[in-house]
Design goal:
With about 450 residues, the protein is α/β, with parallel strands linked by helices. The protein is about 55% helix and about 10% strand. The chain has 20 helices and eight strands. Strand 2, helix 3 and strand 3 form a beta-alpha-beta unit. Helix 6 runs parallel beside helix 7 and helix 12 packs across helix 14. The termini are far apart. Bound molecules: adenosine-5'-diphosphate and magnesium ion (MG).
Length: about 450
Amino acid sequence: MGDSSVGVWDSVLTGLRTQIPSTSFETWFADAQPLDYADGALVIGVSDSVKKGGIERRFRDTIEGIAASVCRQPVSLEVRVLPGRVEAERAVEKDNATEAFAAVTLPLNPDYTFAAFVRGENNRLAVAASEATSDAVGRNLRKPYNPLFVYGSVGLGKTHLLQAIGNAVIASDPSRSVVYTTSERFAIELIHAIRNNSTAAFRDKYRQVDLLLIDDVHFLKGKEATQEELFHTFNDLHGNRKQIVLSSDRPPEDLSGLQDRLVSRFKWGLEADIQPPDFETRMAILREKAAVRELEVQDDVLELIAKRISSNVRALEGALVKAIAYAELERQPLTPRSIEGILPKEGRRPRLTVLHIKEEVASHYQIPLAELDGASRKKEIAQARQVAIFLARELTELSFPSIGREFGDRDHTTIMHGYSKIKALLADTPLLSADISELREALEARYSLVR
Ligand code: ADP
Ligand code: MG
């Protein structure tokens, strides 16, 4: 009983990881635990009611779908809030979800290790520098690179590497204090701390660590107060010889919209890039991913997948999982021929347009696309529309008036209002901020952005 729930939940997590961006995966599932599985009923436990609500609302269908294919019978999901996280829960009960959100440090994903990270020409320097860094922190040696700045485009393993450093440090010395966060989360926690007069606690959290891992610093663009705070955090840690590791989708010199003094500090240590993997490395990654799942897949199948998908490792892994699921569900042997039709044909990524954003938002919230241009003031539609407007402003170069034209010819003041409303809400609404990160990652994975 207990054992089978672990097995089912493991398979569900494996499937989920390839279907949703890693930041949302971490937000929602990092501390979820399987409690029971019997007769098509899967019970999991999470730490607070915000997560329970979010998982039920956003992921129920996906989880039940994956579990059904693993168990070969329909599965229904039940989510419970585990006792023990009293403070977090109390904050939620006070209807102050942000407090619960801010209090919890993001856990590291234990699967993101150096051992599970395949090396190739594309990432050699980044991996070597990451290992040297974790070794120095774990054994309290002189830091060879501080900060270590890892950059590369989406889906190439930045988050995996950052977390591998954290995992390795804790494995070598569990008393080391390691904090992993994303720049967006850092920003949200800061805004929250300012509002609640708890900046001292915020500073303690970030300035008393041995290792600070900050993922996706390109999202600091335009966030002045956050950059200011990070600048001081950086100086403090660096001055105390504590290690900082940063990731970004581009090298420091290309981070427009960030303060020069911050960017110049990002260049103090080592910049290591990750490029898309070559064919041999893609094959090695596919073999590793199949081995982790204890699956035997013919080389000719892996070769076809590796040929088709070249620029994003998450997509590569997703295609493998999709191929396996397809073969199982259709009860067909896994051959190049049987999966040919389901593999995406990867070309150049088209440039992101407002229409792409609208399509993604409409399908995310399951509302008709036309409603985004329409006049409905129903709460869920109005909010989805504002989310789309927010993303249009953040991810394209369009002005407020041009965005207005794209949304049913709305006046630019309406667009500015929608944009600021979401921006303000983000600070207090973890569910919304997870939604937005997820949408943003999905769009960035599929389209190219001009910024
Ligand atoms: P990024 O943060 O750069 O967008 P992630 O770290 O989230 O990318 O990686 C996406 C997925 O690809 C993860 O599941 C990760 O484990 C996997 N991945 C990326 N590069 C490698 C690699 N070299 N070896 C094994 N897995 C990899
Ligand atoms: Mg990442």
